[in-house]
From TrEMBL, chains A, B:
Keywords: ATP-binding, Cytoplasm, Kinase, Nucleotide-binding, Transferase. Pfam families: Guanylate_kin. Essential for recycling GMP and indirectly, cGMP. It catalyses: GMP + ATP = GDP + ADP. This is Guanylate kinase. GO terms for molecular function: ATP binding; GMP kinase activity. The keyword Transferase applies. Residues 4-182 form the Guanylate kinase-like domain. Its EC number is 2.7.4.8. InterPro entries: GK/Ca_channel_bsu, Guanylate_kin-like_dom, Guanylate_kinase, Guanylate_kinase_CS, P-loop_NTPase. CDD domains: GMPK. Belongs to the guanylate kinase family. The lineage of its organism: Bacteria, Bacillati, Bacillota, Clostridia, Lachnospirales. ATP binds at residues 11-18.
Length: 208, 208
């Protein structure tokens, strides 16, 4: 059985990352979504080990000290991070792990796992992004403006990603994401065992 | 319209490269097979510009001198090479160019086009390769032995390829090859124009 891949998905708020990943998880059972560790308190209905791994500040800082996180960041006074052991267990079991994080986290993952796939999801245009943010009808103009400002900043970091997915048609985009990740299994670096084995077999056969 | 990709396909004799590429070309019209230039004489039924571009030795050596070949090699006293202009025209027209060449040529292509996809096609095992070579029933044991020796040498160079395709089930393998090449269009390096444009649009929108 071949090892699973690690895919980092980032993109503008309003690009449709959430729905995209949900559909991909439904598509086949080989995909799993990474569960973050956090120091924030569980909200109603959230379960430890399902939505998050809930940790105390001390526990989280010990995880940092022991290099047990693939990446972590601090937002509004709380830590959020990706536990290394869970991800590595899933990959060893042959599952393709999906990780939805922001650019700094994505860069850190790439440092630890150069073979990770960094994918940036974008709507087809800035105008369409604005339309989607406005169309929700739930946000104030100030919130929308701050999302746009944020997106303008995030766009500066797009070059650091390996792939760009334009989420125009959702089903088409899910298909492209699936193809991308499945194609990564064909990389020579993931098939060195096979390459070594057939080389050896041919050498033996040649000598006979 | 986005630029086409350049894909180099190599693999053991008996791996099924020919059928694989034929099926891929049938699949959709965006694929084209590169036409080699050669100094060998046309065989009956071969047309200049269809099977090969037939050249005199002087013409071929002038193409070498003018760097008009992406790669070339000499076999049994004749030159064979890949004309740069034809490949570049096809890619500029958005077509995905397929090139069936051997390892040294593949390495040369990668030097000139780092973004080229180098794909190695292998049967699932050495035993299966032997079975396919024997099964043709047209080759003498000596020819089969020399093919195996050749394959044993070629196997040493597999590591230089980006991807490995195991041709077990033909239709499945065609699908994987198609996915691989189509996914390459999603690479950030092929989408810098889009990334630049949306970044600019968002900056403008932020300033408004």
């Amino acid at each position: 059985m071949s090892k699973g891949t690690l895919t980092v998905i980032s993109g503008f708020s309003g690009a449709g990352k959430g729905t995209l990943m949900k559909r991909l998880l439904e598509r086949h059972g080989n995909y799993v979504l990474s569960i973050s560790a956090t120091t924030r308190s569980p909200r109603e209905g959230e379960l430890d080990g399902r939505e998050y791994f809930f940790k105390t500040r001390e526990e989280f800082e010990e995880m940092i000290a022991r290099d047990q996180l693939l990446e972590y960041a601090c937002y509004v006074g709380n830590y959020y991070g990706t536990p290394r052991s869970w991800v590595e267990e899933q990959m060893a079991a042959g599952r393709d792990v999906l990780l939805e994080i922001e650019i700094q986290g994505a860069r850190n993952i790439k440092k630890k796992y150069p073979e990770a796939l960094l994918i940036f999801v974008s709507p087809p245009s800035a105008q369409e992004l604005l339309r989607r943010l406005t169309g929700r009808g739930t946000e104030t103009p100030e919130v929308i403006q701050s999302r746009i400002s944020r997106a303008a900043e995030e766009a500066q970091g797009m070059d650091d990603y390996d792939y760009l997915l334009i989420n125009d048609d959702l089903e088409c985009c899910v298909g492209q994401l699936d193809q991308l990740i499945q194609s990564a299994h064909r990389r020579m670096s993931e098939n060195l065992e096979f390459a070594g084995k057939i080389t050896e077999e041919l050498q033996k056969m040649k000598g006979e």
